[in-house]
Backbone:
């Protein structure tokens, strides 16, 4: 999906009434076409039976089956339930179920049939099908890391907003349109059946999307207002902001902290790690920045059914202020056996056989056991270009690191910008410096969400920061030489460390 | 991966280019046969805000004794170019033409991608014979540029 079939300006000019009629016509067109094909197949089958020759009955039966199959595969089904997570039955997690039931009854919404815990920082409600588009149930998908970060009231406010967003399922026409839209969008993206690759089907999807997305956004804003009047607009606003920041932090945590550790065959404590990651000053600053830019984004992406955070916050302003007493608590109190759940989720996310082989590790040990071996492997690739470069000469080397520069370019599968090349050269040099310091008795530390540091007694250096300053001329070569002498690495050949 | 990669993939598919995805990155490599030569091209999406960069690579590094003349040639060529520019790495003589889009959350379209790609391949194709002449020492960079820009 790359562009609107109907220009957005034109869609915006349509009155809501006309837009609704157009959507109904489009949905009707789709169903008309499906039923027409079915009727044609059925008619041919009827004539086969009508011919009175028993040998044609088998053909007729095949045609009727084919007609039924066309009708079935063309029928929009609610989303699939294939979510990687741990199903939480009421007997195992009574408190969480009680809370969810309380929120649902407060809003007069159906209680989700299933609660699934995922290793994520999001929360949403889906509809899944029980063999047909008419028998559906709601599923609450809830992220363990979001529960840890948000307070009980905030989690309840988010559940309320997500449950309210599905309130259309009580209005049959709207439910049918939304379900149809979701299905068409999903199928045009995945094209699981041959006929869905037809340009006509893709055009239909785009046309429908450009009309339905604004409607769904408006519906979400209404749902937010309902949730805010139940949970308190101040509480829902905080919850929406926190979710946006926590989700961004989670992606960074996963990529930079968690995955390198598990890929090295270790099992770190996730909840503890994520809490420490979020508490670091650097991450807090980045999270605030994400929240700020998301709150100020006022243009939804193409076909995006969720309104931008800024719209949602504005929409619930001043609806109902309630006392927010969540300042210090965590919604994890709704769960029992959190440690067991954490292990269960890891087994769900990765293969149980793989998880079984992981060795437990504390986050403090990851510097030596995980990151140092990774850096040693990286340095091995560039050792030849650093041959003869002494640690004390790094100021001069960084002035024209030609051999390393060319090697970084050669190793990169894509052309790099000057900035990317500079950063890569600095990264390799900082790795070499780190290994040189470690070999001279410095202890490496990789604090969660913070810059890598090395310690020797009371002394502490941050090699990546140090080299950035050296390259920028903030440290002169005289001071640098003095530092390398004091650190015991002055005559260390950076190309001969491995 | 941001919103640009699917659009650029679609653009090249529609144009009938044979592309190759690089290391699961939002980047494509392809060959372009121009009137004056064949070039390797790269289409890359950078950052989450949606930057699109297109590179057309000159096939060989510029020899070290010709880099000074080539610097003059690309400076003269770049002056006045509207979309994109030539750039050369003086360390290894890599020469390429580059153009980019910074969409910063705006919707990428096939038309925008087309303008960047056609400017890149068109300009490299136009100036390629001139680059060869500068490398083979046949004419001065000023004369070569004058010839190209007259035509």
Residues:
């Amino acid at each position: 999906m790359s562009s609107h079939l109907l220009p957005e300006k034109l869609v915006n000019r349509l009155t809501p009434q006309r837009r609704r009629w157009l959507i109904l016509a489009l949905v009707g067109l789709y169903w008309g076409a499906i039923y027409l094909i079915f009727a044609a197949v059925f008619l041919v089958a009827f004539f086969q039976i009508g011919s009175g020759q028993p040998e044609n009955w088998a053909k007729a039966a095949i045609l009727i089956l084919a007609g039924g199959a066309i009708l079935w595969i063309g029928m929009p089904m609610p989303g699939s339930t294939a979510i990687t997570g741990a199903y939480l039955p009421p007997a195992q997690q009574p408190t969480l179920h009680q809370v969810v039931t309380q929120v649902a009854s407060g809003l007069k919404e159906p209680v989700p049939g299933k609660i699934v815990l995922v290793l994520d920082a999001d929360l949403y409600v889906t509809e899944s099908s029980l063999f047909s588009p008419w028998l559906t149930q709601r599923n609450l998908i809830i992220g363990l890391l979001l529960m840890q970060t948000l307070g009980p009231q905030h989690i309840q406010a988010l559940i309320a907003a997500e449950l309210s967003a599905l309130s259309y399922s009580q209005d049959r026409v709207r439910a049918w349109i939304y379900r149809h839209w979701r299905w068409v969008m999903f199928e045009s993206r995945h094209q699981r059946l041959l006929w869905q690759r037809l340009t006509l089907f893709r055009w239909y999807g785009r046309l429908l999307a450009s009309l339905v997305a604004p409607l769904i956004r408006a519906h979400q804003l209404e749902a937010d207002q309902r949730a805010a009047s139940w949970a308190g607009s101040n509480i829902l606003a905080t919850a929406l902001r926190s979710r946006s920041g926590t989700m961004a932090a989670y992606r960074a945590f996963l990529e930079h902290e968690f995955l390198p550790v598990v890929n090295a065959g270790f099992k770190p404590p996730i909840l503890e790690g994520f809490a420490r990651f979020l508490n670091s000053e650097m991450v807090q600053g980045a999270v605030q920045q994400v929240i700020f830019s998301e709150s100020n984004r006022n243009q939804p992406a193409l076909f995006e059914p969720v309104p931008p955070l800024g719209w949602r916050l504005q929409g619930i302003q001043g609806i109902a202020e309630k006392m927010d007493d969540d300042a210090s608590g965590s919604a994890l109190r709704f769960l029992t056996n959190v440690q067991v759940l954490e292990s269960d989720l890891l087994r769900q996310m990765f293969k149980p056989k793989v998880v079984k082989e992981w060795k437990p590790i504390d986050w403090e040990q990851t510097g030596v056991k995980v990151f140092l071996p990774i850096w040693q492997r990286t340095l091995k690739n560039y050792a030849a270009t650093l041959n003869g470069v002494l640690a004390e000469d790094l100021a001069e080397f960084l002035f024209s690191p030609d051999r390393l520069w060319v090697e970084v370019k050669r190793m990169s599968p894509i052309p790099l910008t000057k900035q990317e090349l500079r950063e890569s050269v600095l990264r390799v040099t900082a790795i070499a410096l780190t290994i040189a310091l470690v070999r001279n008795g410095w202890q490496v530390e990789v604090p969660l969400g913070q810059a890598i540091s090395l310690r020797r007694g009371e002394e502490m250096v941050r090699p990546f920061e140090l080299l950035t300053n050296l390259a920028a001329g903030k440290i002169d070569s005289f001071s640098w030489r003095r530092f390398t002498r004091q650190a015991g690495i002055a005559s260390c050949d950076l190309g001969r460390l491995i | 991966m941001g919103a640009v990669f699917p659009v650029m993939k679609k653009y090249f598919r529609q144009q009938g280019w044979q592309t190759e995805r690089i290391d699961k990155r939002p980047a494509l490599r392809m060959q372009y046969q121009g009137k004056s030569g064949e070039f390797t091209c790269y289409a890359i999406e950078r950052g989450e805000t949606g930057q699109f960069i297109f590179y057309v690579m000159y096939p060989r590094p510029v020899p070290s004794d010709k880099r000074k003349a080539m610097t003059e040639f690309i400076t003269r060529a770049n002056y006045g170019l509207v979309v994109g520019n030539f750039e050369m790495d003086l360390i290894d003589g890599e020469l390429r033409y580059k153009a980019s889009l910074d969409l910063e959350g705006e919707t990428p379209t096939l038309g925008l991608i087309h303008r960047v790609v056609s400017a890149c391949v068109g300009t490299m194709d136009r100036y390629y014979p001139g680059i060869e002449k500068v490398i083979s020492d046949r004419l001065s960079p000023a004369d070569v540029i004058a010839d190209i820009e007259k035509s």
User: Anything to note?
Assistant: Chain A touches chain B at residues 1-3, 297, 299, 301-302, 402, 405-406, 409, 413-415, 417 (CB under 8 Å). The two ends of chain A are 49 Å apart (CA to CA). The beta strands of chain A are 86-87, 114-118, 123-129, 136-143, 266-267, 359-360, 443-445, 453-456, 459-461.
